[in-house]
Amino acid sequence: MVLTVHHLQRSQSERIVWLCEELGIDYELKIYQRERASLGAPSDLKAIHPTGTAPVIQDGDVTISESGAIMDYLMGQYGNGALSASSNVPNFSDYAFWYHWGIGTFQSTTMTLIYVIKAGVEETHPVLQVLKQKITNSLEMMDQRLMQYKWLAGEEFTAADVYAVFIVTTMRLFTPFPLLGYSGIKRWLENVSHRPAYRRMTEKAEQSESRGEVPVLCDEAPRPMASY
């Protein structure tokens, strides 16, 4: 039975489509558009898994949600060691850190900022200022790393890069922030944009949605999805 990837456009499930393309996995892609008013997932996607969110995959009798769980599953089942680092290589600690940092620190902070802004918190509120500073700190740390190395784990492209790209590209459609001055990140994104698998992901998964221009590789803060 062919693996099915349920993809919500302009969402973190782009990682899963991209990973499948990088690993050369045979998969069926089911695409869902965000609801017009709420920008949330449609009811037919929510019904697939109790989490009610994307990404979701179905592989035979297995149904999995959560980006990290899906990526670990796909690399374990289909990757044959590709895009990961084994524990006996020198850069394993770097790979492990950046792989988990993307979702554990950077994305979670950015998601919190989205909810705080949606709640109507004043621009001058201390909580909002703390969150914005944390995002700046994350960008600076990431940029310093990418000024030293081509990819997050070192000189080879890994799943850590697949994990982190969404946060500084498509996710900016929901929390617009600029990348001006972050030359390491910009060079990294330029390298990503030339990867055939990333281009195939964009072509297959995102072109039928007109709201929010992708890929989001601009220096300036992009136009937010809510404005379309």
Task: Please provide a written account of the structure.
Residues 64-216 form the GST C-terminal domain. One of its GO terms (molecular function) is glutathione peroxidase activity. Its EC number is 2.5.1.18. It catalyses: RX + glutathione = an S-substituted glutathione + a halide anion + H(+). By secondary structure, the protein is an alpha+beta fold. The protein has two domains: 1-76, Glutaredoxin (3-Layer(aba) Sandwich); 89-195 and 204-225, Glutathione S-transferase Yfyf (Class Pi), Chain A, domain 2. 47% of the residues lie in helices and 9% in strands. It contains eight helices and four strands, in the order E-H-E-H-E-E-H-H-H-H-H-H. A four-stranded mixed β-sheet has the order 2-1-3-4, covered by helices on one side. Helix 1 (14-23) packs parallel to helix 3 (67-78) and helix 4 (92-118) runs antiparallel to helix 5. The radius of gyration is 17 Å and the shape is globular. The termini are far apart. 36% of the residues are buried.
